[in-house]
Amino acid sequence: SHIKFVPLTFCSGNRFSIQDLLKARLVHSTDVMSKYLEALFFILVISQKKLELYLWEIKLFARYRSASYSVCLSHQRIWYYLNCLDIRFLCVVGKPVDPEDLRKIEAIVNKQIKDELDVFSKESVLSEAKRIKGLRAVFGEVYPDPVRVVSSGRRVEDLLADPENDEWSSLSSEFCGGTHITNTREAKAFALLSEEGISKGIRRVTAVTTECAFDAMNVASSLEKEVEDASKAEGSALEKKVAALKSRVDSAIMPAAKKADIRAKIALLQNEVRKAQKKIAEQNLKISVKVATEAAESAASDGKTFCIIQLDVGLDAAAVREAVSKVMEKKGMSIMVFSTDETTNKAVVCAGVPDKSDKFKQLDVTEWLTTALGPLKGRCGKGKSGLASGQGTDASQVNAALDLAASFASLKLN
Predict the structure, then answer these.
(1) Using CA atoms, how far apart are residues 181 and 53, in angstroms rounded to an integer?
(2) Cβ contacts of residue 334 below 8 Å, gap of 6+?
(3) pLDDT tens digits, 216-251
(4) What is the mean pLDDT of residues 348-369?
(5) Which of 51, 170, 290, 409 has the most crowded CB, counting CB atoms within 10 A?
(6) Which has the higher per-residue pLDDT, 47 or 101?
(7) Do domains 60-212 and 304-413 have the same CATH topology?
(8) CATH of 304-413, one of 3.10.310.40, 3.40.630.30, 2.60.40.1120, 3.40.50.720
(9) Helices 256-301 & 210-230 angle (0-180, nearest 10)
(10) What is the 3-state secondary structure (H, E, C) of 130-190?
């Protein structure tokens, strides 16, 4: 049952007419595109002009195929793809499927697995089989006559005896010549991983069974627990945890409905982070203006024409800039404000020189800030209206930068 998969190779063209496959009911039409053969994981070996067919991982393949027929959708299925890892359906659906509907679909399949339904198959006259209520077929497919009917939970003979019975709509029945499990319990579990649009009106559903489904469910449970733990954090710790969780959830392989639930919880935490950030920003602004104004008043009382201060507002450039603007506006004094962040070892700096005052004409704001940013290994843009801002990448040298800024201003203004 374990045959190593090798890529398909063809001597010429990309179509085969394989009567043996039709006889075995493994395909439904004589022309089989190479990509479908590869998608179904058939391995073709051409040897001594004889075509041999091997089915790779027949048991696992059967579990996926049977699980894929467990839900009766009102939408038209146009194609499906099964391999040893997942099931993929292409369906004609006008809009995204709601996460709650995905949850219901997943629950229906898992209930059928739990109910341990026997899977039956039988050949039937095509015209009679088509009358079975709720029976599924691939859109545009040409089926042989007689056709093989597969049903879960009820014998095919029962369906054929009373084809119009509404009860059959709740069953999983299908035209299929492929390999199936004998009982739904063999699928073990089912997890619907994603539902996404791939082109206009066409959407793709991806799911897994057996151990892959259990793994997906375990990932969801683990992330749910982490989100719950993160909700107990505050401030910057919460912000970091939320950012990390969001990235992991986006890339995690887990049931789509669970992913939607976890994303909703993370969105609530993100809202809390934004509220906290807004509150901190307001506090930083208030504190920065107050400290800068008091420093300017103290410098003025000492007969100085400039002041240089360091704030403790992290990398809040808006608060630093507002402090500089208010001092220039209310005190008419040149000022430079520094603030650092130990975690990133970065610094934000803003300088202001009242450009309408003759006493400051020797002090160019851009030159002043560029000089001060030297020890910080920083850069700044060209000043405008007497204001200039910049950042440094070595906050450990902030004291040297403070001293250099003071000596430069003294040199220019005295």
Answers:
(1) 20
(2) 305, 306, 307, 328, 351, 352, 353, 354, 360, 363, 409, 413
(3) 999 999 999 999 999 998 888 899 999 999 999 999
(4) 90
(5) 409
(6) 101
(7) no
(8) 3.10.310.40
(9) 30
(10) CCCCCCECCCCCCCCCCEEEEEECCCHHHHHHCCCCHHHHHCEEEECCCCCCCEHHHHCCE
Sign of CA dihedral 138, 139, 140, 144: positive
Structure tokens at 136: 């599924």
Phi, psi for 285 (deg, rounded to 5): -60, -45
89 closest CA partner among 211, 220, 193: 193
Domain 60-212 top-level CATH class:
alpha beta
Q: What is the spatial distance between Cα 314 and Cα 401, in angstroms, rounded to a whole number?
A: 17
Judge whether residue 345 has pLDDT over 90: yes
Domain-by-domain residue ranges, the chain? Answer: 15-56, 60-212, 214-278, 304-413
> How far, in Å, CA of 59 to CA of 1, rounded?
8
- Residues 316 and 389: their CA atoms lie apart, in Å, by 12
Q: How many residues does the chain have?
A: 414
Minimum mean pLDDT among 28-37, 61-70, 105-114: which range? 28-37
**What's the rounded mean pLDDT across residues 152-157?**
91
